[in-house]
UniProtKB/TrEMBL annotation, chains A, B:
The keyword RNA-binding appears for this protein: no
Record feature DNA-binding region, as residue ranges: 34-53
Keywords on record: DNA-binding
Organism: Amycolatopsis echigonensis
Name of protein: TetR family transcriptional regulator
GO MF, one annotated term: DNA-binding transcription factor activity
Length: 191, 191
């Protein structure tokens, strides 16, 4: 939604910076994206990026939230019957990954974690701090089993979207749900 | 094993080139490793690399075979009872990923596929051409289900070794087998 004739508000500016960051992290990875470039793409002064986020790390961490927003994941788990947790999670991630902004963010993260220790550290901190225990609590299963689910979903993204191995890359949403949901569900149901 | 005083044979030279390639692809990714650098690290003339492999793509594809040697994977599937296919596959990959050479190769591949289309194309070609149908045939399951297994195993590597999310990163082999093997096995057993 383009707005003209007035200065954008704080929320809009912040969102514009995050959108630019996701775009640049997505295209160039963690090391290839600078505060200066993010500011330029967002059309703001670099000082504003520092004002809102403090550092490039913080911009990255904030942009990271999108492809795996903890609130959305916990809602997907809680909002519905337990025997369909696997199905809801797979549907949630398929939707996220097929939304251009989230998808670009995910690829940016992937590129970053496989090339820089620092990005892997940040992502690990985010997952361990913001996601793992919340989900383990919501499901009442051990955190180790949540990492099994995470592995299945991360691997789905790698094989379907990054390496694009057929027949998984071209399978419909329904076929992917039918394929992957039972694998996720057995982590939930296991005694 | 250092040898002195005689020229290494063809097999040894070829292996030295592949070892150097795995090292450089592992450290620098697909684009960062050149034929010249691989030759230098292997202590051979670049012309020899061309002689053995033709192109950098071919060196890469050949080096790729290691972390997922089709023969080893098919053997792991066939050599033992069907109800333990999942367990054997998880054990095989844990062993591969905890062997420095295979692990470096895997990280090299990961770095490459997440940063260059060409590397993703090569890996896809390799998986679809050399792995998928062999495994689907060996297990007598549809290829789509093999990609579900691949997703679970690739994701295991990402979460355990690349992002190093605890408790999965620090779990023992036995705990990882107990966690992941049932997820793999249900792809095999599913009606």
């Amino acid at each position: 939604m383009a707005r003209t004739g007035r200065r954008p508000g704080q929320t809009e500016t912040r969102e514009a910076i995050l959108a630019a960051a996701r775009d640049l992290f997505g295209r160039n990875g963690y090391e290839g994206a600078t505060i200066r470039a993010i500011a330029a793409e967002a059309g703001v002064n670099p000082a504003l990026v520092h004002h809102f986020f403090g550092s490039k790390d913080q911009v990255f961490a904030t942009a990271l939230h999108l492809p795996a927003d903890p609130g959305a994941v916990v809602s997907a788990i809680l909002d519905g019957p337990r025997p369909q947790v696997g199905e809801r999670l797979v549907r949630l991630f398929l939707t996220l990954w097929e939304t251009p902004a989230s998808r670009d963010a995910f690829f940016g993260v992937l590129r970053s974690v496989s090339t820089t220790e620092q990005a892997a550290d940040m992502l690990r901190g985010f997952i361990q701090g913001a996601l793992l225990d919340k989900i383990a609590d919501a499901l009442d299963i051990p955190p180790l089993r949540v990492t099994g689910i995470a592995a299945q979903l991360v691997g789905l993204a790698m094989v379907r979207y990054v390496v694009q191995v057929d027949p998984l890359a071209r399978a419909s949403h329904e076929d992917v749900v039918a394929l992957i949901a039972p694998a996720v569900q057995q982590y939930v149901d296991r005694a």
